Amino acid sequence: MDFIPIYTKFIETEVSKLQLPNSPKLLYEPIRYFLNIGGKRIRPMMTLLGAELFDLQKENVVNAALAIELLHNFSLVHDDIMDNAPLRRGHQTVHEKWNSTIAILSGDAIIIKAYQLLQKQDGDLRALLQSFNKAAIEICEGQQLDMDFEEREDTTIEEYITMIRLKTSVLIGCSLELAAIIANCNEEDRKNSYDFGVNIGLSFQIQDDILDLYGDPEKFGKQIGGDIIANKKTMLYLLAKKNASKEQLIKLNKINLETNSTKKIDLAKKLFNELDVKRLAEEEATNYYLKALYNLNKINVLDKNKTKLKTISNYLLNRNK
């Protein structure tokens, strides 16, 4: 685990080196603000670790890693507007600190900067762009599905998995695939790198669903119970619905209609505890974690090269426990 702060600091240093103009102030100041409020930097870290998996130095993939981080931040700025989220990483969201119009335009500028960085990356640019573009459009598809599910009461767990794979997991898969492309890997190793990232992403997002209700707000960095307030069809909610009795389903439907946020969160947590959905969700997260390890074990490199990726995978599954 000692390497994680080292890699985080490396990424923070590289992010701080990004050259952004000073004018127009209301375009670039929100970008600096959002990039400087930190975060786990998991996705660019995966690109760095993916490089080392194939015996490259992390410096060989810096531009790709930064492009991944900017794509992620672009999606967060826009997602926060759509979700009307007041906090991100324990700080005001961009649209709260400024306004939605400024946040939209700054988000647009972030994604353009990501492409500028990827253009500077050594490697097969065509393959890099294909992977990056695929992830970028799938993230948008996942966000739309997420919003669609807010208006539906018949969302299934299978549909939910499809949504989080698109919205969250494919970017982690892309993070590793870019490193494999730069390392000029064979197709099998490239695919297993991508699939490892996707399965770790699924595990990560299910754990995030759990932390939204059960996490430490200071460590989680977001509003606790935000998914409940927004009537999100998370793994917790869908497991509760699947396992609820008729009486409990009535309670669940009433919770969806509750307008007092504090009461709504308390009622949901009480019902979820009755149905033991936290444990069931943790089992789902563990299943995808094990699938990810299977993908990692199939990659044809020395086992010692896989140690850091196994360590960070375990960290993602067990954070805040």
Relevant terms:
single chain; 321 residues; mainly alpha; Farnesyl Diphosphate Synthase; two-stranded antiparallel sheet; 75% helix
In short:
With 321 residues, this protein is mainly alpha-helical. It contains 16 helices and two strands. The protein has one domain (3-318): Farnesyl Diphosphate Synthase (Orthogonal Bundle), CATH 1.10.600.10.
How would you describe the overall organization of this protein?
- By secondary structure, the protein is mainly α.
- The protein has one domain (3-318): Farnesyl Diphosphate Synthase.
- The chain is 75% helix and 1% strand.
- It has helices at residues 3-16, 25-36, 42-53, 62-83, 94-97, 100-119, 125-150, 157-182, 187-214, 217-220, 226-229, 235-243, 246-257, 261-275, 277-298, 307-318; strands spanning 87-88, 91-92.
- It has a two-stranded antiparallel ribbon.
- A hairpin with a 2-residue loop joins strand 1 and strand 2 (91-92).
- Helix 3 (42-53) crosses helix 8 and helix 8 crosses helix 9.
- The protein is globular, with a radius of gyration of 20 Å.
- The mean pLDDT is 94.
